[in-house]
User: Fold these one by one.
Assistant:
Number 1:
Amino acid sequence: MEKTVYIWGEAKRFANYRRWVNSAGGRVVFGRDVAGQGEKWDALLLPGGGDLESWRYGQADVACRGLEPERDEAEFRLLQDFTAAGKPVLGVCRGLQTINVFFGGTLVQDLYGHSAWEGTDRLHTVECAPALLPPFPGGTLTVNSAHHQAADRLGSGLQAAQWTKDGVVEALCHRRLPVWAVQWHPERLGDCSLGRRLLGAFWELGR
């Protein structure tokens, strides 16, 4: 059966996420509703975008940009709804940071060497922890990078599943809930196989 994935926002902004989800046999539902969505759809996807407001993790704003306060509020409410319903949640880039802050973690506000370079994603190697993210059970992967913020202290129940040589968390998962996140962008990797592997395993969380 086709999996339905909810994204808060406009379809035209997140067209690459729709293509990615479709390529793995799912369907994206876009909207700006927050109440009761956890009962209606199979999973929640938190895509990339601007920074979160720093007060949400107890810091003054020293380097945040592209703030989206309305989206912060909506995605926090959706996280509450979907996790309470036991539904799977997947975060990408900003989505990982949103998940970390939702569970009480903090962020590094400005990180050197991980943002896009002249409009193009960087590529770097990440180390995968054995057995934490089933589609990537260990070893290393080459992924893309286009972020200037990152998870710092991890939120309650979260654990790092991938990281770079300089210690930046590139994927995490919840110890009990069906919540995964990656700091890289599977929806725009030239080789789509990693993204399809990730979503293929993610669908299984909802069974």
Number 2:
Amino acid sequence: MKKQYIIPIFVPHLGCPNDCIFCNQKSISGQKKNMTKEETKKIIDDYLKSIKKEEAKIEIAFFGGSFTAIEPKRQEELLQVAYEYVKNGQVESIRISTRPDSIDKEVLKRLKKYKVKTIELGVQSANDYILKRAHRGHTFKEVKKASKMIRWNGFKLGHQMMVGLPESTRIDEINTAKALVKLKPKMVRIYPVLVVKNTKLEKEYKEGTYEPLSVVQAVEVCKEIVRIFADKNIDIIRVGLQSTEEISNPESKKSEVVAGPYHEAFRQLVESAMWYDAIVAKIKKLNMKVKEVEVTVNPIDANHVIGHKKENVIKLKETYDVNLILKQDENIKQGKSKIKITKTYTN
């Protein structure tokens, strides 16, 4: 099976009509200058040098700057560069990310011309008040309209949502996930809000009018959201911003993050928390005092069962006085498990 490779091309704030409260794309992406067709070609060529084509499914992805809000001539310049690699067989497909209110028939016609396969929409929330509070500049009505147009025109639809926006609650975020499920995306990204330098949110944080989620709070909400999408077989392609030199521990001098639920292994924390819940639920169903539990999973899931820095092993022992024994079996489907109670306490 070929491995998926993404060649990321960042177009920070290029064409974006809004200045969202949480956003400083140049900080988040590490991209300090606007993208040109020459720079785009150089980035693609550099990535291709390090990828063994026969082992890879390669996709060029335009991230970060509301791609379809760019002036059409600039869109075409960048798309033409990427399309040449699709035509000559070096790359399989192209993906873009954009705003819901920057999708119309002409835009989709242009993207189809250059064989764009996937369109991701920055949704953030299904609550219009939260969207207005975050200065998004669109409502959820635009999200629904754009999502339907994208699917009806044969593109793969992706959604991006956020957890911890100003005045957003756990219920708001659960409702957002449920609302997105109804729009039938093929994939989603879930981003806990980080307070980034030189944003309006940083100002609110320093004034004390915004309090970001803790890592624990963000994990608790995200695991519920992950379950909602997973139950509908929607591919969850990212949970948490990717760690970079700029997006790193706020204590680092090079970090652009001021505060918020940053963790270098955030997705693992979420998936480990979900495994912990499953094991505890199994134990609680039994009318006996469990001493040792044996969990057999696919090797891919092994680290998540144990938890980051063996967190699940430690928590089970400290909270329930239960020893966790992990076994691996390639015949077990990823995400599935066999849980067996191997020892109990007797009176």
Number 3:
Amino acid sequence: MKLSGRNLKRRLYGLKNLPDRVGRARYFRGHGVHSPFVYSIVREVFIVSELKNSDQQLFHALRSRNYVRRRAIELQNLYTHLGYKAFAIDSLDEECDLCILSESCSEEQTRAWVGEAAQSGKTVALLSPYIGRERQQFCQALIEAHHCTSVDNRGYILLFSDEKLPKQHYKL
């Protein structure tokens, strides 16, 4: 006879994500991040829950594509914090500093754009890296091949292409 409506299997179901959560906990709120660049991003961008600047062009562009409000705020604050001048969504323009690639881009197109952005010193944000197993493996391969710092924030992965930054990967 059960004492409650939930059996043991259902109670332990939430533990399947425990290794991922423990791996990310070491960088909680920037603790354990030994890069001043990434630490400032964590403290000034990821923790802040409101838009920091009156310029909301990127925020509105992401919201018009039905992207999550919190992640749109984070990307807008990143854009402002790093002093970027132009952005592109699902394309790679010559003038853009921040290239945002959604899951609707093909793998070949994404791989080509990430390579071009790395050569020209642009930052790439890969949206929805955990939408499926294939997408997750593809994004992991891009991280491993990337020559510079990368930051995984669950909702997107940032691939920086500054030559001053070392090859490091942070899972926040």
